Write a sequence for this structure.
């Protein structure tokens, strides 16, 4: 088994603004795992609000791969699963292992996980907090890429203006992601009542994650499904969220890869919660890995490849609004 690491910088087509900052690029580390003539790719995506960096990912994976004594994929999985730190690095290795296993056993990752459902969900296209002119350009991009649902980022400042402007440009369905940007449950309740009248589909993370208890008051009165994102990182969080949220946003970079993400979906369903598979603006490597799980999800927020101008890979796509699981192909240098 040979492991190689490639630091890389993904450039956004448009500056990406959310409630807590703006960025023009994302640092990533690509991981290439070669075994028995097969190649599996992984990606650690490192937005600035995560604690990991390219240096920490490279150090962790270099050290980890030195310590794995055996050489089979199952041995590597066995060593990796108890890891509870460096979750983006873990996710990169986990997805590369699943890719190798799938190629060696000549089955899809979905088949290996026993996913019987074959239908893929609708994909959402994220519009970061934008000037009103920028929004029009982004909507055009999304329409060209066959997205049929938008996820609009709100930050609590001019939310009604943003939604009204969106509505003046598109009549497609929309969700909102507040990224913890509202102050309290009364603000959340009032805004959600209004969003419901505007036919919003769902609301993601309205309040700061420390306010999970207060969220139960929002959920109690709320006519729209509310999804946890920042409040839900790992499988152990889910049980504590069921009184406060209707669904969860699962991301490979938060939970450490396909293995735990799959377990999280099963756990969420046990509590009758909805599931959205999201991303941290990964390129095609990370989004194609996450897409493997989407037949089990209600929505897929895997628009990363569409927001990036220098994606060195091609893989999952959106066609007629739904996720399509194309194989991953390298198309540029890393
Ligand atoms: Mg979110």
């Amino acid at each position: 088994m040979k492991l190689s690491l490639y630091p890389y910088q993904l450039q956004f087509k448009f500056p990406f603004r959310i409630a807590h900052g703006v960025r023009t690029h994302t640092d990533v580390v690509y991981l290439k795992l070669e075994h028995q003539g097969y190649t599996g790719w992984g990606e650690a995506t490192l937005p600035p609000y995560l604690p990991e960096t390219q240096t920490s990912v490279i150090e962790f994976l270099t050290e980890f791969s030195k310590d794995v004594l055996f050489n089979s994929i199952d041995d590597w999985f066995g060593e990796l699963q108890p890891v509870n730190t460096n979750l983006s690095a873990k996710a990169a290795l986990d997805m590369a292992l699943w890719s190798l296993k799938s190629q060696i056993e000549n089955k899809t990752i979905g088949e290996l996980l026993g996913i019987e459902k074959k239908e893929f969900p609708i994909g959402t296209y994220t519009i970061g907090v934008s000037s009103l002119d920028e929004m029009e350009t982004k909507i055009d991009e999304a329409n060209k890429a066959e997205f049929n649902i938008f996820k609009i980022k709100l930050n609590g400042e001019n939310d009604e203006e943003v939604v009204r402007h969106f509505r003046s440009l598109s009549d497609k369905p929309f969700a909102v992601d507040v990224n913890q940007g509202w102050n309290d449950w009364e603000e959340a309740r009032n805004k959600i009542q209004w969003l419901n009248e505007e036919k919003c589909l769902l609301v993601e993370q309205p309040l700061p994650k420390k306010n999970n208890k207060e969220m139960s008051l929002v959920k109690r009165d709320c006519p729209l499904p509310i999804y946890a994102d920042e409040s839900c990182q790992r499988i152990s969080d889910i049980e504590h969220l069921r009184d406060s949220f209707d669904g969860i946003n699962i991301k490979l970079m938060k939970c450490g890869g396909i293995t735990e993400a799959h377990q999280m979906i099963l756990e969420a369903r046990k509590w009758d919660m909805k599931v959205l598979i999201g991303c941290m603006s990964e390129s095609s490597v990370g989004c194609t890995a996450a897409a493997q799980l989407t037949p089990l999800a209600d929505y897929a927020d895997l628009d990363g490849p569409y927001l990036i101008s220098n994606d060195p890979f091609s893989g999952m796509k959106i066609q007629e609004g739904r996720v399509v699981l194309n194989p991953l192909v390298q198309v540029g240098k890393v």
About this structure: The chain has two domains: 2-112, 122-330. The domain at 2-112 is CATH 3.30.390.10 (Enolase-like; domain 1). The first helix runs from residue 54 to 67. Residues 177, 179, 204-205, 229, 249 surround magnesium ion (CB under 6 Å).
